[in-house]
């Protein structure tokens, strides 16, 4: 794990504008969501503070924020347990996404500019041209573009947060496919076509089926991993 004193040299040019607590929070949250710190891992606060080059006070503040997000649990003021993968959490996340992703898509189809919708359509790779290593990033960019084109900043923030919460599931359960999505290229092309045709109902329906299929895939993989 990076020592926070060296983050500037490691691509964190804005770290000096953070409080130490914010920097620790961002670092640990990133590592948990990426799967670098594995679900269920037990960490020692004193060791964490030493690794990160901070005192226990900013570390504790950061851990309390992570605990409020249900990413960790604190025990006996020393041990930190990273939240395990959970069927219940996965179900809760997708229950909300099944409502909000189609809603965002319907708004985008109705209200986004022609230029914005053309950019979304152009962002979908031609069949068979996307490199496997790029699929995860392209998948997120595509969905986030729809969120942004809804024009609703609060909705975008909520959906960004929900996406973050599923990222660990994707990376742990589908290690060879960073996107962890179901058949993204043809599905994204169909969604992009519905958007450019300005068909809110079709866009919402395609997104709903797409999100549901992804939930079923991750849920099946999670059940198999816990069997």
Summary of the model, kept short:
The chain has 227 residues and is mostly helical.
Write structural notes for this entry.
The chain has 227 residues and is mainly alpha-helical. The protein is built from nine helices and three strands. The protein has helices at 20-34, 45-52, 56-68, 87-111, 114-123, 135-149, 153-173, 184-196, 200-226; strands at 42-44, 72-75, 79-82. The protein has a three-stranded antiparallel beta sheet. Strand 2 (72-75) and strand 3 form a beta hairpin. The longest helix has 27 residues, at 200-226. The chain starts with 19 loop residues before the first helix and ends with a helix. 28% of the residues are buried. Residues 6-16 have low confidence and may be disordered.
Strand content: under 5%
What characterizes the major β-sheet?
A: 3 strands, antiparallel
Regions with little confidence, pLDDT below 50 for 5+ residues: 6-16
Number of strands: 3
SSE topology string: HEHHEEHHHHHH
* Overall pLDDT level: 85
Distance between the termini: 31 Å
| Inertia-based shape | elongated
**Coarse structural class:** mainly alpha
Helicity level: 55-70%
Main features:
3 strands, 3-stranded antiparallel sheet, 65% helix, elongated, mainly alpha, 227 residues
């Amino acid at each position: 794990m990076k020592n926070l004193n060296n983050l500037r040299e490691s691509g964190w040019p804005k770290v000096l504008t953070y409080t130490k607590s914010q920097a620790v929070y961002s670092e640990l949250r990133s590592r948990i969501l990426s799967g670098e710190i594995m679900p269920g891992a037990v960490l020692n606060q004193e060791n964490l503070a030493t690794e990160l080059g901070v005192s226990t006070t900013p570390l504790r503040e950061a851990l309390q924020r992570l605990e409020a997000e249900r990413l960790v649990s604190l025990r006996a003021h020393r041990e930190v347990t990273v939240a395990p993968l959970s069927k219940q959490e996965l179900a809760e996340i997708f229950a909300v996404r099944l409502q909000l992703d189609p809603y965002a898509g319907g708004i985008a189809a109705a209200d986004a500019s022609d230029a914005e919708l053309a950019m979304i359509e152009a962002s979908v790779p031609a069949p068979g041209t996307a490199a496997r290593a790029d699929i995860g990033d392209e998948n997120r960019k595509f969905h986030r573009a729809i969120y942004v084109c809804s024009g609703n900043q609060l909705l975008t923030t909520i959906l960004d947060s929900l996406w973050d919460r599923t990222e660990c599931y994707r990376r742990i359960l589908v290690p060879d496919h960073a996107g962890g999505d179901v058949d993204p290229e043809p599905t994204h092309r169909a969604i992009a076509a519905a958007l450019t045709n300005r068909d809110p109902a079709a866009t919402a329906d395609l997104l709903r089926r797409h999100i549901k299929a992804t939930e079923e895939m991750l849920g099946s993989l999670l059940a198999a991993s816990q069997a």
